[in-house]
Amino acid sequence: MLTVAEIDLPQSIQKRLREEAAFAESFAAFTREHLIGFRQPAAVAAAIIGPVLLAFVYYSSDFINTMNVAMTFGITTLLFLLGAWYVNRRAIRDAYVRQTRARREARADLQAGVGEAVYLKMVQQPLFYEHEHGVICLADTGDERTVYFDVDSFENDSRWFLYINGDMHRDTWRWMRLMGSGAVAEFSASGQRMSKIGDTPYVEAPDAWEAISIALGEPQDGDIIDMPLEKVLTTISRLL
């Protein structure tokens, strides 16, 4: 059974959205903070070790040796930072893209000001299909339709932790659907466990989910598919 009610955004969600909407760094500033700010372990280590090392050398030697050590230490630190940039350059760009997208979506959600509080009590156990980027969750809504969740294991999605802990297998789901971006928030699962942990099939084919998405009508995370769960299962089984 699925019930949906439109409500004002809770204060906890509004606070998070305001923080995401306030992101305003340029890519250059974002990269600089990741390389020489406190997000970079090498920069933190240099900031702690450098002054102590130079003070010790100056105390035990003279000014010339201190300058030589400072130059050597600075060059070594710079090489470490350049190496960190080279290794993490794609991750830094991806993180910037995610935060820029989150800012845009947060502003849309704040402008909408309301969301849909969704409650689902299941009588059939949900379906899970795990893949290299996360897990697809499908559940019967009780009216010959199916809710579709696309849970990403790389974006700190709370549903991924519920899934690996076995709580996504429970029969009662609650979540908030934000009206501006359509994103799923405040997801929780409770009640009786309906399927065993570890029974999830793993999809290895790299392009399988593109075919499945097309077959299901290319739903987005949190969408309701006009297809009963049994037909969804048959469709996916035929494609895999």
Architecture overview:
- This protein has 240 residues and is an alpha+beta fold.
- The protein is built from seven helices and eight strands; from the N terminus they run E-H-H-H-H-E-E-E-E-H-E-E-H-E-H.
- The chain has a four-stranded antiparallel β-sheet with strand order 1-2-6-7.
Blueprint (SSEs and pairs):
Blueprint: E1 2-8, H1 11-21, H2 27-36, H3 41-60, H4 63-112, E2 114-121, E3 127-131, E4 134-140, E5 146-152, H5 158-165, E6 170-178, E7 184-193, H6 208-215, E8 224-225, H7 229-239
Helix pairs in contact: 1-4, 2-4, 3-4
Q: Globular, elongated, flat, extended or rod-shaped: what is the shape? A: elongated
The amount of helix comes to 40-55%
Q: What portion of residues belong to β-strands?
A: 15-25%
Query: How many extended strands?
Result: 8
Q: State the secondary-structure class.
A: alpha+beta
Alpha carbon gyration radius: 25 Å
Tell me the distance between the termini: 29 Å
Number of helices: 7
Question: Order of strands side by side in the largest beta sheet?
Answer: 1-2-6-7
Question: How would you state the average pLDDT, rounded?
Answer: 81
Query: SSE order in H/E notation?
Result: EHHHHEEEEHEEHEH
| Unreliably modeled segments | none
Summarize the main sheet.
4 strands, antiparallel
